[in-house]
Fold this sequence. Notes:
Blueprint: H1 6-16, H2 25-28, H3 38-48, E1 52-56, E2 59-60, H4 61-69, E3 80-83, E4 91-92, E5 95-100, H5 102-107, H6 109-112, E6 120-124, E7 134-139, E8 150-155, H7 157-160, E9 163-164, E10 167-168, H8 176-186, E11 195-199, E12 204-209, H9 211-279, H10 284-321, H11 326-363
Parallel strand pairs: 3-7
Antiparallel strand pairs: 1-5, 2-4, 6-7, 8-12, 9-10, 11-12
Helix pairs in contact: 8-9, 9-10, 10-11
Amino acid sequence: MTRFTSRNLAALALAAGTTLGALTPASLGQAEPAEQSGGQRMVTMRVNSMPISIKFPGGTIAEYVKAVQSQRKDNSWPVNVILGPDTERIVVRPIELNFVSVDTAMDVLRFAAQCEPGELRIDHVSAHEDESPTFSILQKSSDAARGRQELEVLSIAPLTRPTVDGVSRADLAIRSDIVLSAVELALPPGEETVRLKYHEESQLLILQGPPRATNAVHQVIKTMIDDQRQRLGDAGHAQKEMIEATARIERARVRLATAEQTSAMMREKLDHFAELVKQGSVSTGELQEQRSALANANAMVLTARADLQEAEGLAAIIHKKAAAAPTVASDELASLRKLVEDQAAQIKALTDELNALRQQKNAK
């Protein structure tokens, strides 16, 4: 559910009676990658989510894990797997998968492994989508004695310290007391042997109790993290929309400034030609051409101004969309459409004037 250091993983394995099977020392000791630019991070996420294909003839879970790991050609983003002490020897039936995610490739073990339904526990413990996927595969004991205890170590950092594209988003964080309250509600009634501890500095939740209690807490945390990832994804999309909207505004401002400068030049040139006509230096036909050029320049100014107002209006809607009610957003959009229609009418009127001037010139 999150990135564990080698010390945390070793402690978890010893407490739960597991061994670090297919997890390589290199991946355990791998340092946190330096913060990358937005473009580099997008490439990283695409590599991590790249589908794989595999044709496994059958064998043990350990052999299947190696087959999945071999499908990752980029060694800087390996598939990390923690196997329980008895899990690696479980027999797996032949598997053939085409163009699936690593999550799916690992999850099919629930159905292909030759063990009792529900006996395998497969967890995706990676905290973020832009890091190497890490899985835990454990075999549940068939002993269902009531007094049996399990140890569960869960990280709630994705909930309490969320990030979007590597940037901290405290406004989307869920307070730890809310998470702990949800966990306590999930505990089955009458479980007096459950021990729950929370380490605030590391954001780790440590639970010891019977299997049904640890499973219930695990499902609550998983559901909350899935919901949080959805919100973070929406926030990241809105952030990208705002960046694009800002870029549209800047481009529209440049076009408007250029059009206004051209219009001013055409106005000065028309005034100059008017003086030349009075002096008899140029013909009235040439003066008419300058009037047409000025009308065309003014039309470009109106078009650029309409583009700028539209871009600013869309940016305002995007900014308010997350917090505003749907009706408010609809009203904003309706006002923007009315503004664009008014600008279009002005442009059409100026275009008609320009066409009339051209027809007058052709008639002469």
